[in-house]
Amino acid sequence: MADRSGQVKAVAILFLITTWVLVPLRLYCRGYIVKSFGSDDWILCFLQIVFTIYLISQLLGAVAGTGRHKTDITPEANTEALRVSNERSSVVVREFGANTAVLATGQWWFICELLYIISTCALKISVGFSLLRICVRPAYARIIHFLMYATGLVGIVYFLMVLLQCRPMSTFWEQSPRTNDLCFKNSIVLGLTYTIAIMNCLADWAFSILPILVVKHLNMRRSTKVSLSAILGLAALGSIATVVRCFYIPTLLVGDDFLFATTEVALWSTIEPGLGIIATSLAILRPLYRAMKIRIGLYGSQTAEYHIRDTDAVSLYSAAKTAGNLSQSNVFGLFKGATKTESSDNAHMSETRELHVTTELTAPAVAWVSPG
Question: Long-range contact list for 53-57, CB < 8 A, 24+ apart?
């Protein structure tokens, strides 16, 4: 296929639309339905802004020539495409000429590399804070904290490598990021790029396995555990994108037909954070789904919800079907109760309280159940 710019545009537009639908829904759910807006949500807001800039840059690059052969675009378009291209890696062999347009090319590459590093770190830290909301085992919490700190440390190292890889810094865009004696050698940058990719992959898989272990110890129906674990496990797809992208890292050394050769890198580098944002948003939307069902009357009378540690992600319980038992020591959470009678469309009572569950609680079919 001679022109793959359409694929680049399609993937960018898909994630631009999808993330801007799901992220606001997640923030609405956290902020107005369960009133549990936390650090992970603030980090996600920041991440969404950075990812949007990333996608806009990719779209501009595709319009200018990303995904097309060098022979199919004018020299001016080739320069413009490189200026807004956003593939993530320091391994770029490109000889820059001494003119203003080409200088801008290197500056755009430099800025986009730094933005990508920030966005990938922010995604993993946001996922970590989300898991801490539902984690009830100290051992798992320590693992999550370790992964978050490790992600931040690795991100800082990679950020500094990109920032300081040339001396002076302007050598990156005034000459070339691979200028001999002034920039890091190709072997150093290539080795660091592969190392960071492997560490990102391992962190993604750890964040994918941990939800299964965490949810296993929560008090909820088996079907709910399976569905929640599956949604949280979508983060594993991001690691698959990282692995696939690794196979195309050598294409970043292709200087003659760079824009076409690196199409796969551009696609998979977008899919990885995009899937992560979608997964973290879907995992939080369950209370919104339940609230909509209650509003349109799909629940019967005397329906209550029990939420352990994080009301929007786990442990949803219906008192209309069973007088359920809730037992778990040393767990902080929220209790919500709302009822609807056969003769009225209005909820008679709704209450939210914090509770510390230390003994078994029984929820009879009444308007609401006090944890006391």
Answer: 53/115, 54/86, 54/112, 54/115, 54/116, 54/119, 54/270, 54/273, 55/12, 55/15, 55/16, 55/270, 56/16, 57/84, 57/85, 57/86, 57/108, 57/112
